[in-house]
Amino acid sequence: MKIIQNDLVSQLKTIIPEDQVTANPTVLELHSKDESYHTPHFPDVVVFPKSTEEVSEIMKFANENQIPVTPFGLGTSLEGHAIPYHGGISLDFQLMNSVLEVRPADFLVRVQPGVTRSQLNKVLKKHGLFFTVDPGADATLGGMAATNASGTTSVRYGIMRDQVRDLEVVLADGRIIHTGSMTAKSSSGYHISGLFVGSEGTLGIFTELILRVYGIPEVITAARAVFPTVEDAVTAVVSTLSAGIPIARMELVDARSIKQVNLYNNTDYPEEPTLFIEFHGSDAGLKYDVDFAQKLAMENGCKEFLFETDSKARSQLWEVRHNLAYAFVHKSPGKKMMVTDVCVPISELVGAIQDARAAIDESGMDGAIVGHVGDGNYHVILMIDLNDPKEMEKAKNLNAHLVDYALNRGGSCTGEHGVGVGKRGYQRKEHGEALDIMKGIKDVLDPKGILNPGKIFID
Amino acid sequence: MKIIQNDLVSQLKTIIPEDQVTANPTVLELHSKDESYHTPHFPDVVVFPKSTEEVSEIMKFANENQIPVTPFGLGTSLEGHAIPYHGGISLDFQLMNSVLEVRPADFLVRVQPGVTRSQLNKVLKKHGLFFTVDPGADATLGGMAATNASGTTSVRYGIMRDQVRDLEVVLADGRIIHTGSMTAKSSSGYHISGLFVGSEGTLGIFTELILRVYGIPEVITAARAVFPTVEDAVTAVVSTLSAGIPIARMELVDARSIKQVNLYNNTDYPEEPTLFIEFHGSDAGLKYDVDFAQKLAMENGCKEFLFETDSKARSQLWEVRHNLAYAFVHKSPGKKMMVTDVCVPISELVGAIQDARAAIDESGMDGAIVGHVGDGNYHVILMIDLNDPKEMEKAKNLNAHLVDYALNRGGSCTGEHGVGVGKRGYQRKEHGEALDIMKGIKDVLDPKGILNPGKIFID
C-alpha cells in the first residue's frame, strides 16, 4: 500500500460521499473480525458503497494505488474471510441491501449483496416462494455466494453455487461484468458464475446477484429417528437417498452431543445417534414419503421414529438439533467456538464420524458432532479458550487430523465454510497442481493482488 | 504448426505405439466432421490414446511444437466442436472407454471419456442406478462434459455440469490435474470443475470423469397433454413447477410439428400444442403427482391428458416426440438438419416460441419446434440443402434472429449444444467484457493456443 491512512480516508472522500467513509476506531474494530477464532486485524478505513458505480470507482482508485480491498457482509464467516489482514479498505455492503426484482414465473430474484437470507425470505413469502440455502447464520447473500455457503437443505435443493444464475461483478480494475444470464441453463462460454461463487472476494466484488428460488412446499413434516449406532443411521440415509425420497434436510447428531443437550436443558432424549429429518412436499405425496422413510429406517435398526407436521410440534421435535451448539457454548463461558468442516464421500462417513469422536475424546476436549449427512459433510464443534495456547494447539491439531482423514479418502477440507485463512495450508494437499491453475486465474483477474489478499492462497 | 504431416506422424509414432497413430485418408475423413451443418476440415493425423500418460506425452509434444489438438468422442456435436479447423491432431478417445469404478453408496461412478451414456447405463442398471443426462444422441461422456450437454431430464436432475464431481485433465503442457473431489459439495479453492465442463476442449483434455448417478425410480409414468395454445401449455408448466411436483421430463411440441408427424406416420394426433411429460417416483407418490399435474393442466385449459405407466404404452404415448425429427428428415431427402438452441427465462418462453413460429413461416422454410420447456430451452429443427446458398443464408438468418430475440430478453445463445464455431459470433453480445475474462483464462491455461483452436473465441 502506497498511501498512509489519513490520505487514504481523505482521497476516498473525494470519490464517494464523505458520510460513507470512516476511520472511526469503533467501526474499524467491528470490521476487524468475524465469528471465527481467527486473530482480528484492523482495516485502515471502512467504506459503505451505495451503488455498483461507487464500487467501481473505489476499485479503480484502489487498484491504481495498490490498496487491499476486503468485502464485508455481516461478518458471519467461520474462517476469517472478512478479516483484512493486509489492512486497506473494508468494503461494507450494508447500504446495498435491496431486493431489486422478484420474477415468480422464472423462479428468480435479483438482489443486492447486502440482503440477508431472512430479509429475502420475508419478501419471497408474499409470492409463495422461498430461498432454500440455510447455513444457520442469517448471513448476507453476497457473503453466502462468496463462500459458496450451504447448510441443512443442500441435500435437496443444492448449495449456493447451484442457486446463482448471474452475478454483477466489479473487477479489480473497476470494470463491471455479468457472469451469467437469467436462463435455467446455458452452454455459452466458460462457466465463470461458478468460478466467482466461492472465490471469497479474491477475484472480484459482487454488486448484484440473480438467484434461483423455489415454491414454498405445501406441507413440511419433521421427523426424529434414533439409531443404535452411527453406522445404522448412515445406512438408513443411503437407503433413503437410493429410493429417491425427496428429503429436504437430514442431520445426524451423535450420542455424546445429545447427552450434552440433556444436561443443559434437563431433557431426557435417548442418548444415541439421532437423525433429524425434514420432508417437503404435497399432502398425499408426503404421507407416502414419510411412511417409506420410516420403513427404511426401521429396516436399518431404528428404535424410535417420531414425526410431526404442525409448525410448533416440528420445532420441538428438532429441539436437540437447534440447541446443540448453545448447549456447548453455555457450559463454556468465555470460550470461543471453533467449528471444523470436512466433507467425505458418504461411504466414508461412518468411519469419519467414529474417528472424529475417538479423536475428540483422546484430545481431552469436549465437542459436538453434527453432520449434514446426506452430503457427507460434518462439523465438530469445539469450545476453546483463545488465551490458552495449549488448548488452541490441541484444537488446531484435531482440526488438522480431521482434514487429513478426509483428504486421504477422496474428501475435501471444507464442505461449506470456505478456505479463508483457516484452510489455506491444506490447499496444496487437496488440489495438487490444480492449485497453480487457480493461482494463475487469480493473477489474471487481480494482477496487483489487491482483492482480499491472504485468503485461499498463502501469501 | 511447425511440422509437416509426414514428420508429425512419424514423430508421434516414437511417442506412442504405432498402431494408435494414423493418417489414413478414410480415418482422417471420419474425423473431419460431426453431425452439424458446419463445413468439414481434415486433421493431419488421428491418434488413439490408451491412457492418461499417453495423452500427457502427446500434449507435451504438441505444446512444444505448437500443434493443434482437437479431442474427438463420437462426433455427435451439433456446432462443429470436433472439427479440426486448424488441422493437427484429432485425439480420438474410443480406446479409453472403460467404466473404471461404480460406488453405489456414494452415488458415483468413475469413467474414461470414451464411455457412452448407454454403455454406462447398462453397467449401472445392475446396481439399480442410472445416469440421468439424456441429450438424445448416444454421445461419449467426455464429449458431453466438454459441451455441458443436457436434454430432456435436466428439469429434474440437472445438466452435465451438475453431475461432474471431478475431472482428471491433461493440460496443454502435459501436466495432469484433478479439478474436484468425490464429495457431494466443497468450498475449497476455485470451482474449476465447473470451468472445465463446457470448455469444449479449449482448456484441457479430459482423461477421467467422476460422475453423479441416481437410483432408478421405482415407477415411471409418461403423460401427454394437449392445449389450445402454447401460452396455456407453458402456464401449466409454471404451475406444475411452482407446486414442486417432481417432473422428470417436460417437452413441448408445437402444432405445426405434430401435423408433420401425422403426415409422415399417417396418425391423427390432435394438431395442437402438446406437452410430453414423464414422472419418476414411487408407486403411491407418483399417483398423487400425476393427479395433481393433471388437475393443474386442466385448470390451464388442457383438452386431453393421457398417461401410461407400462413401458410399451409409455413409449407409444411419446411417439410424436420421438418421431419428430425423423418426420422432418424423411420429407427432405438429401438435406442436412440444422438445429437452433436458444434458452430464455421461462416468462419469455411463450413469446419466444410464437416469434419463432412466425419467423419460420415467414422464411418459407419448414421447421419443427420442440422445447425443454421447464428450462426455457427450445430448438427449431430445420432441414437445409447445404449446396443451396440461398437456403443456407435463410437458415443462418433465422438462427441469428432467434439468438437476438433471446439475448434481448436475458437469454442465452445456446442452452445445451455449446458454442463450437456456430455461436462464436454471439459471444461478445451475450457476455460483454466477461468474454475478455474468459479469454484471459484461456491464455493462462493454453498460452500457445493449441487446444481446439477456433472454438468459442473468434481467432
Give your account of this protein's structure.
The structure is a homodimer of 459-residue chains. By secondary structure, chain A is α+β, with helices and mostly antiparallel strands. Chain A folds into four domains: 5-92, Uridine Diphospho-n-acetylenolpyruvylglucosamine Reductase, domain 2; 99-215, Uridine Diphospho-n-acetylenolpyruvylglucosamine Reductase, domain 3; 219-325, Alpha-Beta Plaits, CATH 3.30.70; 333-412, Alpha-Beta Plaits (2-Layer Sandwich), CATH 3.30.70. Helix content of chain A is 37%, strand content 20%. Chain A has 17 helices and 18 strands. Chain A has helices at 5-15, 25-30, 52-64, 117-125, 141-147, 154-157, 160-163, 192-196, 230-242, 255-265, 283-299, 311-317, 319-330, 349-363, 389-407, 427-431, 434-445, and strands at residues 21-22, 45-47, 69-72, 89-92, 99-103, 108-111, 129-130, 164-170, 176-178, 205-212, 214-215, 219-226, 247-253, 274-281, 304-308, 336-339, 367-372, 377-384. In chain A, the strands form four sheets. The first copy, chain A, has a seven-stranded antiparallel beta sheet with strand order 15-12-14-13-17-18-16, with helices on both faces. In chain A, a hairpin with a 5-residue loop joins strand 8 (164-170) and strand 9. In chain A, helix 9 (230-242) packs across helix 11, helix 10 crosses helix 13 and helix 14 packs antiparallel against helix 15. The longest helix of chain A is centred in the C-terminal third of the chain and has 19 residues, at 389-407. Chain A is globular and about 65 Å long. The mean pLDDT of chain A is 94.
